[in-house]
Predict the 3D structure of the following.
Amino acid sequence: MKEKITLQGMLYDSKSSYLRGPALAPPLIRKAYRSDSANYFAENGMELRPEIFNDLGDFEIKDYFDIEKITTQNLHKESPLITLGGDHSITFPILKALNEVHGLVQILHIDAHGDLYQNFEGDPYSHACPFARIMENKLATRLVQLGIRTLSSHQREQAKKFNVEIIEMKDYTETKLPHFEKPIYLSLDIDALDPAFAPGVSHYEPGGFSTRQVLDIIQHIKAPIIGADIVEYNPTRDINDMTAMVSAKILKEIVAKILENNETIN
Ligand code: MN
Ligand code: MN
């Protein structure tokens, strides 16, 4: 019997610095997941019908600090948790909730941006800051970032201060993929992909991953995955629901990977 995956959606984009829209994403990723244009088989052969999820639905967030409270209510030690965002600010409160249940984790963060600002336009909880907050609050023993192609001098200093392992996009090859020995949390910002593959994002940062490269990265993960998020899909910028389908495909492959890796452990 496969374990169920807890699924929650955060309808929240108030910490976005440039455009709003990611709050609309969670129901559209679910809809794309169920689209008749595709089937439910992951590439590893597992059939992952929507019933695989313990789907708790979408949460309308008024107050940023409610994200942690809601995640705490939704989180159970035995069940991996996937969150659909929302902008990237949600990852810090999710990690806080996760830390109470799972202790320290290692994080694989895939993004065009480091999201390491000490504060952004005066807001320490901006979507440009979550990984500074996570490291400052010592919620992770290790942070590995992939896809990064926008580092400012300030963010380079922050990365140094927090011992962040960054494989910048310009240096990326599959052979450099990190090896994790401990359970990981996977945080995927859709703008890590090249806008050619995923146009539905607020910040177009050309020169990114192909969809295939992101799927390969996920499929190469050897460690158990206790939680993941898919953030920053902005439907107002999408073309023909293309990015919704990309997000849904990535969701399916993350679930397949969770089931594959967590089963080997048990
Ligand atoms: Mn981000
Ligand atoms: Mn980003």
Summary: The chain is about 30% helix and 20% strand.
